[in-house]
Amino acid sequence: MAEVVSLSRARKARDRAKKRAQADANVVQFGRSKAEKARDDQIADKARRDLDGHRKDPE
Questions:
Q1: What is the mean pLDDT of each run of 10 residues along the chain (59 residues)?
Q2: Dist. CA 47–CA 44, nearest whole Å
């Protein structure tokens, strides 16, 4: 005998799985770790400081 399944629960579970798969794909495509973001911020800050250090008339 087959198990009784709530159709609304099955639909919601299917939708959750689809959203989770989409989120995983987005992470692979767009995601960066916190360490990578921090490293990029540090590099940008250093470049800004170096550029400001070469100013002829400091503000």
A1: 91 97 92 91 96 80
A2: 5
